[in-house]
Amino acid sequence: MKKYLLFLVSSLFVTSVAFAADSQIWGDMRLEDILGYGQAESTKLGPLFTMLQSNYFAKAFLVVLVGVPLVFLIHYLIIGPKVFSHDGKKIYAFSLLARVIHQIAAISFMVLVPSGFIMVFGSTFGGGEFVRMMKDLHGLATIPFAIVVIPMFVIWVKDMFIHWDDIKWLMIVGGYLSRKKNPVPAGKFNAGQKTWYWLATLGGVVMVLTGASMYFMDFDIAMLREITGLSQIDILRAAAIIHNIVGVLITALFFVHIYMAVFAIKGAVNGIITGYKEEEEVKILHSSWYKKLKKQGKI
Amino acid sequence: MGELARMKFYCDDQRCIDCDGCSVACAEAHELPTGVSRRKVITLNEGIFGKEFSTSVACMHCTDAPCEQVCPVDCFYIREDGIVLHDKEICIGCGYCLYACPFGAPQFPRDGAFGTKGAMDKCTMCAGGPEETNSAKERELYGQNRISEGKVPVCAAMCSTKALLVGDGQAIADIYRKRVASRGHGVQSSPYGWGSAYGK
Fold first, then answer.
1. B100 CA: distance to closest CA in chain A (Å)
2. What is the residue-wise DSSP string for chain B?
3. Which single residue of A38, A283, B26, B106 could bond B97 by disulfide (Cβ 3.0 to 4.6 Å)?
4. Which residues numbered 79-118 in B keep a CB inside 8 Å of some CB on A?
């Protein structure tokens, strides 16, 4: 952990030192970038970014912002939430460390997602001081997330690999299309949670790196240009494209995650707060894990 | 300039002598902070006989400006004469305009201890910004507004070899054609950079 923090701090220091060096954007590279823009042999990332940003990114975010909650509203009204007894026995599911790490990431997300949306729809908010403040908040909230994302990956990775249950779970969409309380095939984490885990951790790292590139902009890391074979400006263009696409996916699943924890399974959010899940909830929604715990004599 | 003037820049790389005068004149006229050069002279193929050339680059004030298309806060506006300007009080310094720009024109002065990017700065073709024309605020944020006084933008006004031209696109194209004809050998069919900036 200490080493990890040291690495974070030192890498920030290295990038800030790099500012002093010759600009990779407005220096001698600039003319080559101009001559290459949109040419047949170039990466065409400039025109691609322009096309995507002016036509699609904001629309995709709008679809997520309106579409996902709308689907859930319909689900809630037609099928309704799953309600499990909160008076029965509890099953210890999340250690204190896991909960602390999750809560830090959760709080970061609660800042990152709304501030990101406000930037995407910046013209609606008139730009200026307010949106600028959101941009700074977006950057600040990245710091706690960047610190916990790898520990979060490590503590849960052993439970996240694909399993036969996941295929079965996907076939019945986790049992969420039915009101019946039939046991659903899933281990400690179901296929939906696993998908969210991989996207939030690996995708989260991608978001941190692409976001930091855009934030620091004129940094000079020769290795990055050599590995990617891109000029600095093309690295930034690629970062913006990736950040928006992964951002759309993460926000969509983030909404799913919140709906499940808060609305679809009544009181499920308590599990990550207290560490204990309701026995009936585990028995139905994580039936394979329940059987395993029973076999081990843990319940 | 007639009624339908469409303002364009053109730098003749056969005449540009890499004196950097345009860049210095611009920085001084607009009192730009160090680290920001709205106009820059770049030399390519340095030392390679017959291939070396210098040219002066800044915002080209493009037709259908890509910066204006990608700005998430819509801080750009395009004047009737084609000059592309932006409102620094709306700009959030995200950098998207730079990613879209074919000319690397938008720049971001760093302010604050954490290297936060400030509002974008770029060439205004000496036409100021959205503030009251020739007000102290306009001058502070965007530099001189020479166009409003009927003056040529300072970079082109001082160019000693008249490599850098600015004005109505039609007039510029006529000068370009005359120069190409007088040189009497094959040169590209339209001024350098015009394909990207103004379309074919």
1. 5
2. --TT--EEEEE-TTT-----HHHHHHHHHTTPPTT--SSEEEEESTT-TTT-EEEEE-----TT-HHHHH-TT--EEE-TTS-EEE-TTT-----HHHHH-TT---B--EETTTTEE-S-B---TTB--SSSTT-HHHHHHH--B-GGGTPPPHHHHH-TTS-EEEEEHHHHHHHHHHHHHHHTS---SS-TTHHHHH--
3. B106
4. 87, 89-96, 98-104, 107-108, 110, 115-117
Question: Does residue B2 surpass a pLDDT of 60?
Answer: no
- The DSSP code for A183 is P
* Cα B166 from Cα B125, distance rounded (Å): 9
Domain that holds residue A21: 2-93+160-295
pLDDT at B136: 94
Q: Count the residues in chain B.
A: 200
| A110 falls within a domain | no
Dump pLDDT digits (tens) for B52-83. Answer: 889 999 999 999 999 999 999 999 999 999 99
Q: Which residue has the tokens 């220091």?
A: A13
| Helix-helix angle A128-156:A191-216, to 10 degrees | 130
Rounded Cα distance between A257 and B144, Å, is: 53
Categorize the per-residue pLDDT at B34 as very low, low, confident or very high, splitting at 50, 70 and 90.
confident
Please list every residue in chain A whose beta carbon sits closer than 8 Å to the beta carbon of residue B57. Answer: 30-31, 34
- Cβ contact, residue pair B196, A37, below 8 Å: yes
CATH class of B7-198: alpha beta
Per-residue pLDDT tens digits for A210-263: 999 999 988 888 899 899 989 999 999 999 999 999 999 999 999 999 999 999
pLDDT band at B194 (very low <50, low <70, confident <90, very high): confident
